[in-house]
């Protein structure tokens, strides 16, 4: 019997039992040309400060964090990556779009 911390099975009387995990383990990162990113401006729940949100990334958390780090450094500002979104402090919609399109991403600007 395979050991798994998150398994709810405690014991099996079947000697031929093999544990199978139904959850997906790896999410493959799509190539930039197949990504459809949305860039928007947001200031809700941020005490009136504007941020640029990049959503729609399909891939691993590591690749998302790497992209977020690169965007923040190119814009010269802070930000974060959480809940599948890249948050860049300030309004940089056009600059972020130029950077992403130069990397081969398909992106559109939405919102105000």
How are the SSEs placed, and which strands pair?
Elements: E1 36-42, E2 51-55, H1 61-75, E3 79-82, E4 85-89, H2 93-102, E5 106-109
Parallel strand pairs: 1-5
Antiparallel strand pairs: 1-2, 2-4, 3-4
Structure description:
The protein is α+β, with helices and mostly antiparallel strands. It contains 2 helices and 5 strands; from the N terminus they run ββαββαβ. It has a domain at 32-109: Translation Initiation Factor Eif1, CATH 3.30.780. A hairpin with a 2-residue loop joins β3 (79-82) and β4. The mean pLDDT is 85.
Note the main attributes of this structure.
112 residues; alpha+beta; Translation Initiation Factor Eif1; 22% helix; 22% strand
Outline of this structure?
The protein has 112 residues and is of the alpha+beta class.
Provide the spatial order of strands within the biggest beta sheet: 3-4-2-1-5
* CA-atom Rg in angstroms: 20 Å
CATH topology of the domain at 32-109: Translation Initiation Factor Eif1
The CATH C-level class name of the domain at 32-109: Alpha Beta
Portion in strands = 15-25%
Structural class: alpha+beta
Q: Which range best describes the helical content: under 10%, 10-25%, 25-40%, 40-55%, 55-70% or over 70%?
A: 10-25%
